[in-house]
Amino acid sequence: MTNIAIDAPDSIEFLMGNEAIARGALEAGIGFASAYPGTPSTEIIGTLAQVGKELNVYVEWSTNEKVALESAAAASFAGVRALAAMKQVGVNVAVDFLMNMNLCGVNGGFVLVACDDPGALASQTEQDTRLFAKWADFPLIEPATFQEAKDMTRWAFELSEEVKSIVILRGMTRISHGKGSVNFGKLPQERTTATFDTSFPFFMPMPVLFRHQMVHDRMAKVKEVFESSPFNSYTGPDEPDLLVISGGSCWLYAMEAVKVLGLEESVGILKLGTIWPVPEQLLGDHLKKARKILILEHIEPFLEGELKIMASEMQFPEGPPVFYGKRSGHIDSMGEITLDVALKAMGGILGISLPERNTDYRNKALTMIEQNVPPRDLTFCPGCPHRATFWSIKNALKLDGRDGFVAGDIGCYALGAGPAGYFQVKTLQSMGSGTGVASGFGNLGHLDFRQPVISVCGDSTFFHTAMPALMNGVHNQSDFTMLILDNAATAMTGFQPHPGSEVNAAGDQVFAVDIEGICRSLGIRVEVGDPFDLQNTEENILALLEDGGKVRAMILRGKCAQVKAREGEARYEVHVDENRCIGEGCGCARLCTRVFRCPAITWDGSMGKAKIDETICNGCGVCADICPQSAIVKEAA
Amino acid sequence: MNRNGPLNLIITGVGGQGNVLLAQLMGKALVKSEYYVTIGETYGPAQRGGAVMSHLRISQVMEYSPLIPDGEVDIILGLEPVETLRVLGQYGNPKVAVITNTRPIYPIAVTAGEAQYPNLEKIEQLVHELSSEAWFISATDMAFSMGTPILANIIMAGALLGTGLVPLKQEEFLPVLMDNFPEDKRELNLQAFVKGFDLTKKRGEV
């Protein structure tokens, strides 16, 4: 990866968007950065963590997004430039604190990078951070290119200090996880110092009404700054047949579509980088010059709505222009904006046919692929402890026989809702919510609810937001079983440390918070087990299910298979004894391949037997324990 | 490169095959040679057995958007054969050139016995039918013979450059490649690259 800490002004580097954001923050001279990991935002802090010590920047992985924002706020209060980063759903967690910060104001420049994920490529929602900015009265900007990702981040700190407000930079999957050329600027030479001025101003929202007015005055000032921002620009004829207003990262698609259609002489593109508050003067001037307006923006018809409000207050001698976008149906109301989306919308509005693609080829290709190419579904890795855990959950719930189920949570184990986890997970929402939901199910006994409920959560999720839900259950005498799937990793996002880890973001050795100790301090029954020990796990879960009327917990400790693979720790060497495997004749109905579904066990149709792919087998040995014929053999490695 | 639009290259494979690294190194080398390069990537849940795809858009004129439109790929570098086919289905056209590894990584539906994985003969037939030229490289087997399967992506990088389809010379790519590895890994990676390069450098003879 590129070293984002090099002091080489004007050198052109090839960067991931998240690296460009991190570089922008370094050029702005930040002294503090915090985040909870979440795709597509993770690499911002991941990159900063690698260079933090060298450049005297404190970098932390926080327990959750709200704490990340709070701790970064302290740095800002002390006059230090601070950055907090999170994925779009992380903003939901941080929003309680965020809503106070508009009234409190800031001291050192304070930037919140919130990465939206159009198409929900790696998210449980498709939500638009711009609505938060409007709701909470924060300036929001959105880069269109990798260069802007860096430049706008740097500028956001200046703006934040100028108007004394958090500035939100809206990241986007295709920018954050894309790569392009970025021209470096200078790194600051002077060293920041942190001091909290106890005389004035104080950082609190009171008096609320006075400060609420102040926020509105501030936003009027921001609007003025945005009117002449170099991040807004126009390309095209003076009076275009069609004006495309592109919000942030849609700009590259708009430019490319105009080029593909050869409409440079008739279509204009207004590139808008400063999104909220909308620069009304600038937009108004452009609205007057075109009769047709297409708004290209990711996720919600946000600018489309704002433009219509503006237009309703403007005078148009020939009547108002026609607006096209998500509300008019010219652009789908969900999913990513792509070049094809832009082309289709422009073609439809202007009544021009799009460049023909070879439909004969396409139909032939799609048919051939459909007939010959197997799907590639997500599943747990070979040797993943979650597969073993869900196997035990499935068996325990079946033996229990009261139609029990799992309230799921966010992490790799969300795959428990599908075949990878034997369809055991029946509810799935946000971080930590499985245990909160279980706590509610467990208090329906007075209405004759008799089904046992299991909540699952990972170690990082336990610290993030599951702990309050667990305590809620204990205090309110709920009835459920919590399984903490402790794989010693924030695996989904790439193994960031959490409070249970022995190292922190900076690589320092730290005290590892003990999940078992926390659970025991609640006075509840706590079991600890090894998920790869199927018999013991199943018996324990069954016993916990039967021990009803209260909250009880089991911690299943098994290292993430990815970590084990890296450490080269295999427990067993596993192979199939061909003489014992009798395939379809067994009566097991191919339990190992068809049901257990570890990718390292393959059904060899020609042989009519199972076999182990030794190149990907992780040596957990679980499959040997499920084979009714004892045909899968494990030997200590 | 003398063309109107960008050169569209897709590198496809399965999580863990080194797809993202390869795209990054290619992009870096092309930028050093003064091309505009934009990469768009899909790899969110790839660690859990999913497909990974890197879109590279290479131009001397302008910065392009990060996604290649359907039907518009020029070159597919496939690290896994059915992923190569999947990309052909969505992004292919009669002019596309394909360089693909032949070693399968079976999807879970195949290991579970619910779906068939096409045999190599069938894969070659489909690729030939859907492309203008194609190279089939047993990169994983070659990498195993060099001691470790992780070299397969470097062999494939060599094969791609050997075809001459990407405007990048060996001497422009190798410094970027070498720079990425610690001293003790450089010789082996160089050997892997050269192995791949030699396979395709005389076009049409493979």
Overview in brief:
Helix content of chain A is 37%, strand content 18%. Chain A has 637 residues and is of the alpha/beta class. Chain B is globular.
Give the tags.
heterodimer, A: about 625 residues, alpha/beta, 7-stranded mixed beta sheet, 21 helices, about 20% strand, globular, B: about 210 residues, 6-stranded mixed beta sheet
Describe the protein in words.
- The complex is a heterodimer of chains A (637) and B (206).
- With 637 residues, chain A is α/β, with parallel strands linked by helices.
- In chain A, 37% of the residues lie in helices and 18% in strands.
- A seven-stranded mixed sheet of chain A has the order 3-2-4-5-7-6-12, with helices on both faces. In chain A, strands 16-15-17-18-20-19 form a six-stranded parallel sheet, with helices on both faces.
- In chain A, strand 13, helix 11 and strand 14 form a beta-alpha-beta unit.
- The longest helix of chain A has 20 residues.
- By secondary structure, chain B is an alpha/beta fold.
- Chain B has eight helices and six strands; from the N terminus they run βαβββαβααβαααα.
- In chain B, a hairpin with an 8-residue loop joins strand 2 and strand 3.
- The longest helix of chain B has 18 residues.
- Chain B is globular.
- The two termini of chain B are 24 Å apart.
- Classes of the chains: A alpha/beta (637), B alpha/beta (206).
Q: Structural class of the helix and strand makeup of chain A?
A: alpha/beta
Radius of gyration of chain B: 16 Å
Give start-end ranges of low-pLDDT stretches of chain B: none
Q: What is the first-to-last residue Cα distance of chain B?
A: 24 Å
Low-confidence segments of chain A: none
What percentage of the residues of chain A does DSSP assign to strands (E)? 15-25%
Total number of beta strands of chain B:
6
Mean pLDDT of chain A: 95
The coarse silhouette of chain B is globular
Alpha-carbon Rg of chain A, integer: 28 Å
**What structural class results from the helix and strand content of chain B?**
alpha/beta
Of all protein chain pairs, which has the greatest interface, and how many residues does each chain bring to it?
A: A-B, 65 and 60 residues
Annotation field: number of helices of chain A: 21
Main beta sheet of chain B: 6 strands, mixed
| Major β-sheet strand ordering of chain A | 3-2-4-5-7-6-12
